[in-house]
Amino acid sequence: MAPHADQDDTADPKNPVHKADAEQAVEPKVAAEQAVDPKVAAAIAAAEAAGPASGESVRVDSWIWAVRLIKTRSLGASACKGGHVRVNGQNVKPSHSLRVGDEVRLRHEGRERIVIVKRLIRKRVGAPVAVQCYVDNSPPPPPREAVAPIGIRDRGTGRPTKRDRRELERLRGIMGGGTGRPGGH
Hints:
Blueprint (H helix, E strand, L loop, with lengths): L15 H18 L4 H13 L7 E2 H7 L6 H9 L3 E3 L2 E2 L5 E2 L4 E6 L2 E7 L9 H5 L2 E3 L25 H11 L13
Antiparallel strand pairs: 1-4, 2-3, 2-5, 5-6, 6-7
Helix pairs in contact: 3-4
């Protein structure tokens, strides 16, 4: 049956031309909200559901573990106790409550991580979801130095002599001074 002159065919959801126009109008909004993989979005939703309710807080040791900055929660607690975790410039105890927008500085494995809290979570989540919970302002990690094969000795050559050991230390830079001799004589 043909539409009447007074009927508007734009309201027909089965019409492919108008359906495409409607999808294009909605698509930019959806793309802005979900610029991540659907699986990651589902995991983020699950993490938010398991997160603290409004007004509740999350402990700093638990949060740095949950967002995978530290391998275990007990390591997070010991890092806090050792003065390796700072929140907004102050050393904190493991039980310190975090809020969205706090700056967390963590010294771990010879590197300082500087992150700003975007989302509070309690349970440990996968790496793609964890990255969504903070903004990483850390300096890039130092480049890994190529280890020279100087320390590798041929099989069967035996124990290195004192002279060999000193040459190895000088080449590796352990002695420092430049002469390679203790005391600089």
